[in-house]
Design goal:
The chain has 212 residues and is of the alpha+beta class. It is built from six helices and eight strands; from the N terminus they run E-E-H-H-E-H-E-E-H-E-H-E-E-H. About 13% of the residues have low confidence.
Length: 212
C-alpha cells in the first residue's frame, strides 16, 4: 500500500490498471517472409492452438504468475530503508540544498515544514531544470530562491511493511528514484528507500525473497 503527499495533504494511492497487448510481428518490407508464428487461415485446428497459447501467455504476463522462493522470508521496506533521513526545510534556499547534495552525495532529499511534516521532494534534476529554464529565459539567477518554489509537491510514500517488490514496481512505473517511508499512525517520515538501496540488497542477498 502507498499514499500520496500532495501539497501537504495525505491521499490514497490508486494504481492505474494497465492492459498489455501482445501483437503479432510482421515483416518490415513487402516480399520478406513473416517469421512470426505461421497460421494457415484454412486450418482451424492450428489457429485454435495458437490462439489458446497466446491467450495463456498474455494471462500469465498480466497476472504476474511468478514462483517466489518460499525458503527465504520476504523483504520489506523496514529491512533495507535508511532510517537516519536527511531532510531540508521548505523555506531553505537553493544554495542550502546544493550544499547538502554535494556533502552527502545524495540525489533526492525529502522536504519538510517547520513541524517536520513531509511536504515535498527535491532532487538534483529539479535544480538543474530550474537553472536551465532560467537560462532559457535569460533570467539572472538569484540566491534567494526557496526550495518551496521548485520542489515536487506530489510525493508517493510507502509504509515499513510495504514489500520491496511493490516499491521497485512503483519506482519503475512512476519513474522515480526514491520512496520516503512513513509510519501508519501519523504519517511521520521514518525512512527512505532509493534505487541504490534495492540494488545493494539484491547484490548482498542474491537469494532473498522479494515477494511479500
Amino acid at each position: 500500500m502507498f499514499i500520496w503527499f500532495r501539497n501537504g495533504t495525505v491521499e490514497p494511492y490508486i494504481p492505474t490498471v494497465r492492459h498489455d497487448t501482445i501483437h503479432r510481428v510482421n515483416p518490415m518490407h513487402p516480399g520478406i517472409p513473416d517469421k512470426s508464428v505461421s497460421i494457415n487461415e484454412h486450418d482451424e485446428r492450428k489457429q485454435y492452438v495458437v490462439q489458446k497459447f497466446t491467450q495463456k501467455a498474455a494471462e500469465a504476463y498480466e497476472q504476474e504468475e511468478f514462483s517466489p522462493d518460499e525458503s527465504h522470508p520476504p523483504v520489506f521496506a523496514r529491512d533495507i530503508m535508511s532510517r537516519n533521513v536527511v531532510t531540508i526545510e521548505q523555506d531553505s534556499l537553493i544554495d542550502d540544498v546544493e550544499s547538502k547534495f554535494e556533502s552527502k552525495k545524495f540525489r533526492h532529499i525529502p522536504v519538510v515544514n517547520s513541524k517536520g511534516d513531509l511536504t515535498g521532494m527535491i532532487s538534483e534534476r529539479d535544480i538543474f531544470k530550474h537553472l536551465l529554464n532560467s537560462y532559457k529565459r535569460n533570467m539572472h539567477l538569484t540566491p534567494n530562491i526557496k526550495i518551496l518554489e521548485i520542489m515536487m509537491t506530489e510525493v508517493l510514500t510507502g509504509f515499513p511493511d510495504t514489500a520491496i517488490r511493490e516499491i521497485a514496481k512503483i519506482m519503475f512505473e512512476h519513474k522515480i528514484g526514491s520512496v520516503p517511508i512513513v509510519n501508519r499512525e501519523d504519517h511521520k517520515l521514518i525512512g527512505i528507500i532509493t534505487r541504490s538501496d534495492i540494488l545493494k540488497s539484491v547484490m548482498r542477498h542474491t537469494s532473498m525473497n522479494l515477494y511479500g
